[in-house]
Design goal:
Radius of gyration: 21 Å
Strand content: 5-15%
CATH superfamily of the largest domain: Amidase signature (AS) domain
Number of domains: 2
Number of helices: 15
CATH topology of the largest domain: Amidase signature (AS) enzymes
Structural class: alpha/beta
Strand order of the largest sheet: 1-3-2-4-6-5-10-11-9-7-8
Largest sheet: 11 strands, mixed
Helix content: 25-40%
Length: 487
């Protein structure tokens, strides 16, 4: 497995020590070796990646600086538009659709010298926690191929964990970056809502979706977030605030920082080994000079129920555009209404249909106030309770996922048990705040455990400083990033 960091690759390519072509072929070789087993990708863009690598090498030879991610292979979740490359959200209904433009984050990656290597598998339309809800079949966890990688960005997490790319992009609506990062033993970041452009991200739930990075270490995640963040006039929800300084502040540590361990995220449903690792992470921060205490955020207990009204309601609206007329799959029928019904029946998977029906019901006449309206009130309570917690603490700490990676097929028959995998991550999306998962050793089964660091809006700098200390403290624990180590 290739183990070079993204920062190390970029430095070596810019100095001429390595060529972008050499770096790419090394990673393509790893993809060829293990991709048939892992199935992290829907599409591997070999030739366009080689063309991009040649262009970077030509720029270096001409004395030009290709950018801070020069020659770094990056995997892209298959809900990010890429011009001329099939983009399906792992759904039959978008089979064959090739966007005429790049998402803003893709443009920023390419402008920084990164080399996109392919589109990663995902739960269909980002709806799931295991990457088993894909029309293309499941992705497997590189640490143990009988287990899931998490979801919905499981392909991106697995690609980084398996060494297919040092960096990847995912999207996080209710934990879809952080939860698979935890299960695959990599770093995953959900930025403040609006810090990263959503232009070209195919929508699931527009008030919750946010693009963010996967990486094998905290510094690489910071470097990638700095590259893709910043105002985009094409996205009406894009923030105009300056991007927080991340890579330059990682060395500052946590001396004097106030860290709160969220009690509601340490109780029922959290496995004993995950809870123990989280407490050990709190102790590591205290040893590094932080002031650590417990904090209650009462309304997070209602996060799961509020989310499964807000997100499906927005999804039922967003997915109405897939009608068999404008793009993707079309099943012919005698009338337009029959064609739309047949197309959606054939094109959407069971979980997507389930959420569309939930959302349509929550928005229907007579039920709007009782369900969707009440969920919005709970969302406000969550924001208010987080605000009170951040009056006392600079960052918060919790498990990322209640358990380590579960078995393939283990929860597919029980949607409620599957939904519970996001119980620790969902509240942050409802609040619009940043949070990230950092690997912190392994559980009793030898599989990776992720610890979640949460921060107030635009608190990424403090969040990353805390994450770097945890990463350093975890260095003496078992190595969760050595793909296959627990097989």
């Amino acid at each position: 497995m290739t183990t070079r960091t993204a920062a190390g690759i970029s430095d070596a390519v810019r100095s001429g020590e390595l060529s972008a072509a050499e770096v790419l072929e090394e990673h393509l070789g790893e993809i060829e070796r293990r991709e048939p087993e892992i199935h992290a990708f829907n599409t591997v863009t070999v030739e366009t990646a080689r063309e991009a690598a040649r262009g970077i090498d030509a720029a270096v030879a001409a004395g030009e600086d290709p950018g801070p991610l020069a020659g770094v292979p990056v995997a892209l979740k298959d809900n990010l538009c890429t011009r001329g490359v099939e983009t399906t959200c792992s759904s039959r209904i978008l089979t064959g659709w090739k966007p005429p433009y790049d998402a803003t984050v893709v443009t920023r990656l390419v402008d920084s010298g990164a080399v996109p290597v392919g589109k990663t598998n995902m739960d269909e339309f980002a709806m799931g926690s295991s990457t088993e809800n894909s029309a293309n079949g499941p992705t497997l966890n590189p640490h143990d191929t009988s287990r899931v990688p998490g979801g919905s960005s499981g392909g991106s997490a697995a690609a980084v964990a398996a060494g297919f790319a040092p960096l990847a992009l995912g999207s996080d609506t209710g934990g879809s970056i952080r939860q698979p990062a935890a299960l695959c033993g990599v770093v995953g970041v959900k930025p403040t809502y609006g810090l990263v452009s959503r232009l070209g991200l195919i929508a699931f739930a527009s008030s919750l979706d946010q693009v963010g990075p996967f990486a094998r270490d905290v510094r690489d995640a910071a470097l990638l977030l700095e590259t893709i963040a910043g105002h985009d006039p094409g996205d009406s929800t894009s923030l105009t605030d300056p991007v927080p300084e991340l890579t330059g502040s990682l060395h500052r540590g946590v001396e004097g920082m106030r860290v709160g361990l969220v009690t509601e995220m340490m109780g029922e449903g959290i496995s004993a080994d995950v809870a123990a690792r989280t407490r050990a992470a709190a102790e590591a921060l205290a040893d590094a000079g932080a002031s650590v205490g417990e904090v209650s955020v009462p309304a997070v207990s209602y996060g799961l129920t509020a989310y499964y009204l807000v997100a499906p309601a927005e999804a039922s609206s967003n997915l109405a555009r897939y009608d068999g007329v404008r793009y993707g799959l079309r099943v012919e029928a005698s009338t337009t209404a029959e064609m739309m019904e047949a197309t959606r029946t054939a094109g959407f998977g069971d979980e997507v249909k389930r959420r569309i029906m939930l959302g349509t019901y929550a928005l229907s006449a007579g039920y709007f106030d009782a369900f969707y309206g009440k969920a919005l009130k709970v969302r406000t309570l969550i924001r208010e309770d987080f605000a009170k917690a951040y009056e006392r603490f600079d960052v918060l700490l919790s498990p990322t996922s209640p358990t380590t990676a579960f078995g393939l097929g283990e929860l597919t028959a029980d949607p409620l048990a599957m939904y519970f995998n996001d119980v620790c991550t969902i509240p942050t999306n409802l609040a619009g705040h940043p949070a990230m998962s950092v690997p912190f050793g392994t559980g009793a089964d030898g599989l990776p455990v992720g610890v979640q660091v949460l921060a107030p809006a635009l608190g990424e700098a403090e969040m990353f400083r805390c994450a770097k200390v945890l990463e350093d403290a975890a260095a003496g624990l078992s190595d969760p990033t050595a793909a296959g180590a627990a097989k």
